[in-house]
Amino acid sequence: MPTAEIAQYGIATFAVAGIIYVVGQALKQRNDQNMTAVIENNTKALEQVATAIQAMQVAMARQEAKIDELLERARK
């Protein structure tokens, strides 16, 4: 009965490969969900950085205008 034993080994190997495949797919899906969360967090952070940069640009423009005004007064 060596053929029956070979068939049993084949079935066992196929079952183990199937389990490994299912576990691998589950882990991949979980990693994809984690990646989605990371991307969302990074997007929010970049939006906040862009807002801060715009606020700094406005403040610098105001400072430049005041400096120009003071220079003009000093030249007179």
Number of strands: 0
Overall mean pLDDT stands at 86
How many DSSP helices?
1
| Portion of residues within helices | over 70%
The sequence of SSEs as H and E is: H
Largest sheet: none
Low-confidence stretches: none
Rg of Cα set: 33 Å
The CA-CA distance between the termini, in Å, is 111 Å
Regarding quaternary structure, how should these chains be classified? single chain
* Structural class by SSE content: mainly alpha
Give the overall shape.
rod-shaped
Q: How big a fraction of the residues is strand?
A: under 5%
Produce the secondary structure layout.
Elements: H1 2-75
What do you see in this structure?
The chain is an all-alpha fold and 76 residues long. The relative contact order is 0.05. The protein is built from 1 helix and no strands. The chain starts with a helix and ends with a helix.
Please supply descriptive tags for the structure shown above:
mainly alpha; 1 helix
